[in-house]
Write a structure and sequence with these properties.
alpha/beta; Rossmann fold; N-(1-d-carboxylethyl)-l-norvaline Dehydrogenase, domain 2; seven-stranded mixed β-sheet; elongated; binds nicotinamide-adenine-dinucleotide; binds uridine-5'-diphosphate-glucose
Length: about 425
């Protein structure tokens, strides 16, 4: 099939590459000339494991092309819109990019083209975008809501092995065409109304975010009563009705999706006069989790002025370079406002982090360089590299062997194996080894 994908961000690019991998003829279009220039050369604008190899092989096979030229839309059977829908200051979704994309394509689409909205958009937006395009192009079009559920860091795997594909439609023939596009993936497909499809995306993200805030709330109780949240989460997760996924306690969820989507859903509910205090609580718990490590350090040190604090991890999660809504930003800002000197290291997010925190903190080129002479080490993102650290070696390089672990990277036996360590984590008893 001849497919165009508008937007070559985390979603558009992963989608375009995967659709070409399953045999479709895909043209990816973006307004960012620099991005398109690099993509044509096989250079990725983002860090996403596995994407570069697939990008190269599909460009070589002639199934994947990149352009800024909208004239390329003319012969496309399916046009997928995957541009950003960030959050506005007032809590609403910023639809300006998708509105612009709708206007951009209007002059080039054929009556037979099916417009597929993959961007996450508030309920009713597909209908609004359909009207916007129809007003511009002067004929009626078919629109499909096809929300995306991939996670950054595992985008290829998630696209190729999605738990489900949601197709929100009003025209059966258009829905069947999209089913045909996805057929090679052999995945479960759920057909719904357009509004239900839009709502499925927000409800899914809100549920997962609430699950995280729930386990974080339990972690805080565990700390108070002397229980261990890791055991509690494992015990809960074994119940199939609860499930083991998304029960990892920590310093809060970040990224470009959960924070914005829960806020937008909360806002939508309030527009309709619906009580959504559950979502408000999810957001508030998440905000307070981001302060936990600094609070623990303040209890331990009294004050942080003049202390050298190392932060390992900056990205909002491992295996991505994305800093959007990363808890590391709040932590770094709190530490520096309290007078601490912060040195950070991240395997992939340093360039993006420098753009946000460059004037506040220092950046090291390796773990060794970052931890040297530190008064304390904060673990902020659970990169594999950090989970596999040789703790005794790291601790020897520090001024004081003190770790505040925001992602519970180390099990009890690894802490006990250290000669001297003070180890503070989330929802687990503090551990002090070898210090009188
Ligand atoms: N990032 C994720 O993991 C993820 C997962 C599921 C859903 N989503 C949703 O998917 C959408 C895209 O997210 P993202 O993270 O990929 O965004 P992104 O910011 O990484 O990329 C958006 C891209 O769209 C391009 N763009 C903007 N206007 C355009 C236009 N008129 N024509 C062509 N290109 C245009 C931008 O230049 C940019 O390259 C959002 O609605 C998001 O909520 C994101
Ligand atoms: O048990 C957990 C799981 C995740 N997180 C945090 O939650 C955030 C989001 O993680 P994850 O869901 O793995 O990454 P995203 O790439 O943001 O993916 C989410 O957001 C996407 C955009 O909507 C959806 O497509 C995905 O289905 C949804 O998982 C990160 O900060 C994680 O550290 C936890 O704290 N505990």
């Amino acid at each position: 099939m001849k497919i165009a994908v508008l937007g070559t961000g985390y979603v558009g690019l992963s989608t375009g590459v995967c659709l070409s991998e399953i045999g479709h003829n895909v043209t990816c279009i973006d307004i960012n000339k620099e991005k398109i220039k690099h993509l044509r050369q096989g250079i990725l604008p983002i860090y996403e494991p596995g994407l570069e190899a697939l990008l190269a092989s599909n460009i070589t096979a002639g199934r994947l092309r990149f352009t800024t030229d909208r004239k390329e839309l003319k012969d496309k059977e399916i046009i997928i819109i995957a541009v950003g829908t960030p959050q506005r200051e007032d809590g609403e979704a910023d639809l300006s990019y998708i509105e612009q994309a709708a206007k951009d394509i209007s002059g080039y689409i054929a009556e037979s083209s099916i417009i597929v909205i993959k961007s996450t958009v508030p309920v009713g937006t597909n209908e609004y975008i359909k009207k916007t395009i129809e007003k511009e192009c002067g004929f009626s079009i078919q629109i499909i809501s096809n929300p995306e559920f991939l996670r950054q860091g595992s985008a290829i795997h998630d696209t190729m092995n999605a738990d489900r594909i949601i197709i929100g439609y009003e025209n059966k023939a258009a829905a069947m065409k999209l089913q045909e596009m996805y057929r090679p993936l052999n995945l479960p497909i759920l057909l719904t109304s357009i509004r239900s499809a839009e709502m499925i995306k927000y409800a899914s993200n809100a549920f997962l975010a609430t699950k995280i805030s729930f386990i974080n709330a339990m972690a805080n109780i565990c700390e108070a009563v002397g229980a261990n949240i890791e055991d509690v989460a494992q015990g809960m997760g074994k119940d199939k009705r609860i499930g083991e996924a998304f029960l990892k306690p920590g310093i809060g969820y970040g990224g470009s999706c959960f924070p914005k989507d829960v806020e937008v859903l909360h806002h939508t509910a309030s527009l309709y006069g619906i009580n959504s205090s559950l979502l408000k609580e999810t957001i508030e718990i998440n905000e307070s989790q981001k302060d936990l490590l600094v609070k623990k350090a303040l209890i331990r040190f009294g004050k942080l002025k003049g202390k050298k604090i190392t932060m390992l991890g900056l990205a909002f999660k491992p295996d991505t370079d994305d800093m959007r809504e990363a808890p590391s930003i709040n932590i770094a800002r709190s530490l520096t406002s309290l007078g601490a000197e912060v040195v950070a290291y991240d395997p992939a997010a340093m360039i993006n982090a420098k753009g946000i925190l460059g004037d506040k903190i220092l950046f090291a080129n390796s773990v060794d360089e970052a931890v040297w002479n530190a008064d304390a080490l904060f673990i902020v993102t659970e990169w594999q590299e950090f989970q596999q650290l040789n703790l005794p070696t790291v601790l020897k390089k520090m001024k004081h062997p003190i770790i505040f672990d925001g992602r519970n990277c180390f099990k009890e036996d690894r802490i006990k194996a250290c000669e001297t360590i003070e180890y503070y984590s989330i929802g687990r008893p503090d551990m002090i080894v070898g210090i009188a």
